Amino acid sequence: MSFISERVSRIKPSSTIAMNQKAIELKEAGHDIISLSAGEPDFDTPESIKEAAMAAIRSGQTKYTAVDGTTELKQAIIKKFKKENDLVYQLDQITVGSGGKQVIYNAMFATLNENDEVIIPTPYWVSYPDIVMLAGGTPIFIPCSRENNFKLSPADLDQAITPRTKWIIFNSPSNPTGTTYSKDEIKALADILLEPKNQHVWILTDDIYEHLTYDNFAFYTMAQVEPKLFNRCLTVNGVSKAYCMTGWRIGYAGGPIHLIKTMAKIQSQSTSNPSSISQAAAVAALNGPQHFIAEHNKIFCERRNLLVDALSDIKGLSCNKALGAFYLYVNCEKMMNKTDSKGQVIKSDDDFVIFLLDQAKIAVVAGSGFGLSPYFRISYALSTERLKDAIIRLRTACLSLV
Ligand code: PLP
Known about the structure:
alpha/beta; 41% helix; 14% strand; binds pyridoxal-5'-phosphate
């Protein structure tokens, strides 16, 4: 009999975190690795937010708080939802966790019974399937092709729904593709979810990259586009990406009271409240100055353009020009069956990213971890100078393959 539970044996460690870890180890061993695998902005947390955290420490906000968030933070979140998304929530419809990841985890544990199905458009953020499986559910993957800009089509959604479907997880802008859904595209999906036979399906919208969009893209979330779905939506967001606060671990969601209450119950028996200091910092983030978001986006957009142009010049690689997040999802099909200078044949995107790490000393994440191969995810959340170096290395490595 195995000591490790069957449920845990079915899941794998996050491939993005694994690649980041590998890059860190090689760096520590003295290699000049350029990491393009990061899932976090390279910018520091803005000063005003850090000051708020220090003020919280000094004023003694160092004790347990209410399990799923302070009233002050919930009020800031309510204000944000109203102002930015036209969504009206009450205090008991808001939950705060240690990152968006914990919020999603709580939602799945609160609702899934064995064999309940969760629809996950693919490619997906690496953690969705594993969180679903840990909670006892079954992920149902819907492949979304590059030709359709990696977007879920209403017809495919309709076909995937069964009587056992509990949730669909919807992520725009997307990790790993940067894909963004327009208001009309969200409405078309909402129409499917409103059909009488689909009324039992809940919608988890992961809006963590809401503020990272380019080329005047207008962000909308499902409950805003279709108010009739408001009571079936859990609208998840957080401060990690927009406010450069990945290490602070604050995520939140708005949703129906009974779901929010159950999620708090789970949190009360696991981590309890998120850090009191981080919560105070998140209040400052949401209520304070927002100008740096546009400043960061201008830089992200320049880097995206640089990268898209460079990739279009590298024979054998190609990608779509995504409008959001800080990732591109690059097709490397034409690199398959090529041979490197050591005589190794590249058979998969896993082989290709290992080749890039070994030969070019650049770290990217293989598409296999996101459910669609042969691709790799490249993050442009690093300095423009390093990005330029990485492009030269990438081009040289690709040219060396025969
Ligand atoms: N959702 C997506 C799509 C993400 O990429 C991430 C982080 O990488 C998260 C949620 C979770 O972010 P956090 O737990 O830092 O709020």
